[in-house]
Design brief:
The complex is a heterodimer of chains A (418) and B (424). With 418 residues, chain A is an alpha+beta fold. Chain A contains 16 helices and 14 strands. In chain A, a hairpin with a 4-residue loop joins strand 1 and strand 2. The relative contact order of chain A is 0.16. Chain B folds into 2 domains: 216 residues, Cytochrome Bc1 Complex, Chain A, domain 1, CATH 3.30.830.10; 176 residues, Cytochrome Bc1 Complex, Chain A, domain 1 (2-Layer Sandwich), CATH 3.30.830.10. Chain B has a 6-stranded mixed β-sheet, sandwiched between helices. Chain B has a 5-stranded mixed β-sheet with strand order 9-13-10-12-11. At the A-B interface, helix 2, helix 4, strand 10, helix 10 and helix 13 of A face helix 2, strand 5, helix 4, strand 11 and helix 13 of B.
Chain lengths: 418, 424
């Protein structure tokens, strides 16, 4: 077992890789009452192809829902019996199952491993789930914020599996069968494609032994190579407008990043700092646009950098759609002139980012969610602080030029009904 | 421990070493009054955006960055008859940052500026700043119908509390409330708040109680002449016939909310039975509504209930397909009758209790939740140890829950009916 000691913050990270390929990461937090464990699979909504065969959109999310539904019981009830709350979520490239508990850590942990590693799907249950997920999709379709976000991503990646919502569509989920679920499960849910992360008041040696004993007691398939889904997008939809039942127009700008930088942590952190320098509440630009009434408190931005893709989204509500676009694009594509020489502001933003990382250490969920997988050397928020400290304004300008290119921009507007 | 600084002004320090932050809240407490909603909402925004020390939003934001990304914000909350304007600030514990500056002292000085040095002169707020915040709030209030689920529950509450409007009206008031207020009136309102609102200050983190007392003692809050108290809503008259209001919207999903009177309050002996009744009925994923409306019948994506122990109010919220309206109401009724008939699975009840106990312990792992729990307890004048609380939870029986359920009376229904019309 490898131990990384982050002495300055009084925390340690324990890492092990089991014989069957499963990664285990443990972070003890003494004085905490809660233990939070996540069992995740590198499998998300974009992974719809297995050995050349296409599966319906939304299958990863459907599978996640069905995983809890066992032959004669609901796995959620088992966690509940042990006093834990359990949950799961699916995003573009990952599915995670988790529980949080203050008691019975051992029993909950074994249940987490068992319910995910012992699938049970039948036709009847699959059919019934279509009604529930159908409602869930309707709910997203009614939510202007969710529509704005997904539609902007679809505009950036129209020729890829990112072109469909994580939950799929009413049509696609209706096509899902029991066999589709087993095919996907058998292909992606291998221990070598999975990670168990546990944060809380735990003893790492004892906890690891529980996991090893559990894994040794099971016959799990030997590791097979998984073809990683590659998102190669050569197309984009420049601009879309749709009408929904909203009072104020909602607008978004998306910028598709170069795949060369996928999951380059220096790139990721540099872009985060840059966007904050440009458009957070402390920036001159933000203040001017805010005072001119072009943006308001609803304005926000997000930068997502994953193994398969990276993009930035800027969104807000505005009565003046044209001014919003003009102002934001002017900032983004003229960023160099704005940040050049702002060394003091840059140091301030770095300081803020470091402080926020320290604050995040309070939350065992945030600590857990920050842990990366083996392909990224289990990088976590403690490691990120050192990388942030090392960044220079020049790095930020260099990476900014790599992302902020007008030819990779899309626009998306939601207008009120006429 | 709550310590009184002066009449109506209290300080609660929670020394706790496991957190890597020090968090503060200052709560300004008064009776909720519908004529003040807009002024109070704008005041919260003004306090968040600037003051004399940091007269622009960017200067204030830069100050927060320099305090190592301090998080700062204000909001307005309601506890029954009371309105709380909450100011929150959190900084990393200075021992984790390599800085020689005293960010703890800076943080307290920052709070002082927010409270005592508003961006105002000649007895009125700075016109530009005030007008921008007034307009932004007005815009925000006009757009709450965009969030259909929230809009439906807001409407149900207004319907339910129509004779007790200060407990039910949307907390930010109406759009046109924002048209008439001036920078002068806003300043007068600020003065009134500072003079009359009761104050509760909370601190949690690796701090020393007497240090905090000395630092906050320098805040010049005067004595308060009126002490604010939470009052249970005990004089509510239930409609003889259920009042139903329907409104149509353009959306694929519909939202059905049902408002019930549940006459049990936080200071009653049966209080814990009422809490568990709500948990069994619709308050948790183990509940009857979740299992039967959502899971068994696939009638809804969401079906849940929530209970206010100050107002004796229980609300069922569902997201459904419009055509299932009557069916959903029937199933909700059916689930209630099951509880009345003591048809509750003992295992499920024990699971719910275990989850509640788990959640209660988890509160201690979050600085904010910790502060909130102690704040609510002091507001409700309640002090109960975890062990006593746990014992109370475990003592509630199926027949206790059924007894509470028999008192539940449906009073109002609000239905936001989704119709997809072709967009042009």
């Amino acid at each position: 077992m490898e131990i990384k000691n982050y002495q300055q913050y009084g925390d340690k990270v324990y890492i092990d890789e089991l014989d069957n390929g499963l990664s285990v990461v443990m972070i003890p937090k003494s004085g905490y009452h809660k233990t939070y464990a996540t069992f995740s699979v590198n499998y998300g909504s974009i992974d719809t192809t297995i050995n050349g065969k296409k599966y319906p959109a939304g299958i990863a999310h459907f599978l996640e829902h069905k995983m809890f539904d066992k032959k004669d019981h609901d796995a959620m009830d088992v966690f509940s019996k042990y006093g834990a709350s359990s949950n799961a979520f699916t995003n573009f490239n990952k599915t995670s199952y988790l529980f949080a508990t203050t008691d019975n850590v051992h029993d909950n942990l074994i249940e987490l491993l068992d319910f995910v590693q012992e699938p049970y799907f039948d036709e009847q249950k699959v059919e019934k789930e279509k009604g529930i997920i159908g409602q869930e999709i309707s709910m997203y379709d009614d939510n202007p914020g969710s529509v704005l976000f997904f539609k902007t991503i679809q505009n950036m990646y129209p020729d890829t599996p990112l072109n469909v919502d994580i939950a799929g569509s009413q049509d696609s989920i209706n096509k899902i069968t029991k066999d589709d679920l087993y095919d996907s499960y058998n292909y992606f849910y291998q221990p070598s494609n999975m990670q168990l992360t546990i944060v809380g008041d735990i003893n790492p040696e004892e906890t690891l032994k529980w996991v090893i004993d559990n894994q040794n007691s099971k016959k799990l398939p030997t590791a097979k190579t998984i073809d990683k889904t590659i998102i190669e997008s050569n197309d984009l939809v420049r601009e879309t407008t749709q009408r929904m039942d909203v009072k104020i127009p909602k607008v978004a700008i998306g910028i598709k990043g170069n795949n060369q930088f996928n999951n380059d942590i220096k790139y990721e952190l540099s872009i985060s700092l840059l966007l904050q320098m440009l458009l957070s509440e402390g920036s001159e630009v933000y203040e001017k646009l805010y005072n001119d009434g072009i943006i308001d408190d609803s304005f926000g931005f997000d930068f997502d950098c994953e193994d398969q893709f990276n993009y930035a989204i800027f969104a807000g509500e505005t009565d003046d759609v044209d001014s919003f676009y003009q102002a934001i694009t002017k900032v983004l594509f003229g960023f160099e002139d704005i940040v050049k020489g702002l060394n003091e502001e840059f140091e301030l933003i770095k300081r803020e980012e470091i402080g926020q990382h320290i604050s995040m250490m309070n939350s065992i969920e945030a600590v857990s969610n920050s842990v990366n997988d083996k392909d990224h050397n289990y990088r976590n928020l403690y490691d990120e602080i050192d990388i942030i400290k090392s960044l220079q304004l020049n790095d930020v300008i260099y990476y900014g030029k790599m992302l902020l290119k007008e030819e990779f921009m899309v626009k998306n507007i939601i207008l009120p009904q006429k | 421990m709550n310590k009184t600084i002066t009449d109506g002004v209290e300080l609660n320090v929670i020394p706790e070493q496991k957190f890597k932050t020090i968090s503060f809240t200052v709560d300004l407490i008064t009776e909720n009054k519908k004529e003040n909603l807009a002024k109070r909402a704008v005041l919260a925004e003004l306090m968040e955006i600037s003051n004399q020390d940091y007269p622009t939003q960017s200067k204030l934001a830069k100050k927060l960055s320099s305090m190592y990304g301090a998080t700062f914000g204000t909001n307005v909350l309601r506890y029954g008859n009371l309105s709380v304007l909450r100011i929150s600030l959190s900084i990393p514990n200075p021992k984790f940052v390599d800085s020689s500056e005293n960010i703890l002292k800076e943080a307290i000085e920052f709070l002082k500026g927010v409270l005592f040095r508003p961006l105002a002169s000649e007895k009125k707020y700075d016109e530009n700043t005030f007008n921008l915040q007034r307009k932004n709030m007005k815009k925000y209030v006009s757009s709450i119908s965009d969030n259909k689920r929230f809009f439906a529950s807001t409407n149900l509450k207004e319907l339910f509390y129509k004779n007790h409007i200060n407990r039910g009206i949307f907390l930010y008031g109406r759009e046109n409330d924002y048209e008439s207020i001036s920078a002068k009136e806003e300043y007068d309102y600020y003065k009134d708040v500072m003079k009359n609102d009761n104050v509760k200050i909370s601190v949690i983190g690796d701090v020393n109680e007497s240090d905090m007392y000395n630092l906050f003692n320098s805040f010049e809050f005067g004595k308060k002449t009126k002490l604010r108290k939470v009052r249970a809503l005990s004089d509510f008259t239930v409609n003889e016939e259920v009042e139903v209001v329907k409104q149509q919207i353009n959306s694929s999903q519909s939202y059905l909310n049902m408002g019930y009177r549940l006459p049990f309050f936080y200071n009653d002996n049966d209080f814990m039975s009422a809490i568990l009744f709500n948990a069994v009925f619709g308050g948790t994923p183990q509940s009857k509504l979740f299992k039967n409306v959502r899971e068994k019948n696939s009638l809804a994506y969401s079906a849940s209930s929530s209970y206010s122990s100050i107002n004796g109010f229980l609300m069922v919220s569902t997201g459904i397909n419009a055509k299932n309206y009557q069916q959903v109401i029937d199933i909700v009724e059916e689930q209630l009758n099951e509880i009345i008939d003591e048809n509750i699975d003992l295992n499920t009840l024990n699971n719910i209790k275990a989850e509640m106990i788990n959640a209660k312990k988890s509160v201690l792992d979050s600085p904010r939740q910790n502060i909130e729990q102690e704040f609510t307890n002091s507001l409700l004048n309640r002090s109960i140890s975890f062990e006593e609380w746990e014992k109370l939870v475990l003592s509630v029986s199926i027949s206790d829950i059924a007894k509470v359920a028999r008192k539940l009376k449906l009073n109002s229904i609000f239905f936001l009916e989704g119709r997809i019309t072709s967009g042009d």
